[in-house]
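REQUEST FORM: STRUCTURE PREDICTION
Request ID: SP-0412
Submitted by: Lab K.M.
Chain count: 1
Length (residues): 74
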Amino acid sequence: MAKVLGVMLCIVGGLASLGVFFLYLNSSAVLPYNPADGVKGILDVGLALPFILFGLILLAGILMLKFSSEPQVK
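STATUS: Completed
RESULT:
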């Protein structure tokens, strides 16, 4: 059951991390929407917490897949 949870965490964390990455690329941290304000950082656009959260979810899924073991049923 731990491997199934690890796969689910990997899928959710990976897709969410990819989504947050695309949001970051479309934010004012990369694109100059208002040149008078200048380029903002990742904390200013409000994406630091989602990066950390979804990165930890992805890491937890990878670690569960790597270190969990299922009983051998014959």
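NOTES: The mean pLDDT is 89.
Reviewed by: T.R.
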